[in-house]
Design brief:
Oligomer: single chain
Low-confidence stretches: 244-264, 266-274
Number of domains: 2
Strand order of the largest sheet: 1-2
Radius of gyration: 26 Å
Number of helices: 10
Order of helices and strands: EHHEEHHEEHHEHHHH
Structural class: mainly alpha
Shape: elongated
Number of strands: 6
Length: about 290
Amino acid sequence: MQGTIDGFSYGLVTPVAAYIMACLGSALGLRCVVRSLLNQDSWRQGWLALGATAIGCGIWTMHFIAMIGFQVEESAVRYDTGLTVISLAVAIVVVGIGVFVVGYRGATPVALSAAGVVTGLGVAAMHYLGMAALTLNGTIRYNTTTVAISVVIAIVAATAALWAAVSIQGFLTSLGASLVMGVAVSGMHYTGMAAVSVHLHEKSQNTWSGDSPTSLLLPMLIGPVIFLLLASVVVMFDPLLVTGNGERRGASSLLRPEQQLPRIPRQSAVRDIGQPAPGGQRTPAPPWTDRRP
């Protein structure tokens, strides 16, 4: 017997709230990646780790906010606490691999492609591991084709978001990239949910364990939401991202070393004024250096 699935039991409240959280986490994460590229002398590892955590928390929060609206009419829905927590850790770690690839390899096509694939797979892994935490009076089955489509959506959109964030500097561009990333996470989630079917057990089995969505998910969502809000304050008031200087510096920092113009140390240039040239002739000093009475 097939169960009746309703993924929007609260109407548009859960999908809209989930999309907003996905965009917030993506915006913070992508801006942290840009910050690590703007000034490579700063604590790059810290910014990349903050970015990976922000994106991972955004993905995880989006998924389980959306899952609050998921129900099967013929069965109660429960969640395994351990797998729910593990899905958050997996999201942060796998997305972190993609973020660190971009942070250390730059905006090259190979690096962006690899990072996009890894980040997209991190989104998919978090989703299906989170679904594995779901328990009910039945068996959850997936349509293989729809699952494959959901993974492709996550990879393509994640790659596009990373490319836009690190290749085209500017706050509005990063904002647009975060909206694309939010579409990637939300689109992947609801495409994956379209692949779900529930085959109910013939007899009601009340032996499955777990916590209800409201008793488990709502308290667990408080931590990642607070983290995203605090991280937004850190990113919002970072001087290199707030001022235009950082954006201008970022355009040259993404170039390969051989493409950048050589820099002449100021002290060396001043010291060489008036010194003998390689041919033996003395370089004339500028008139303003003549201090004779």
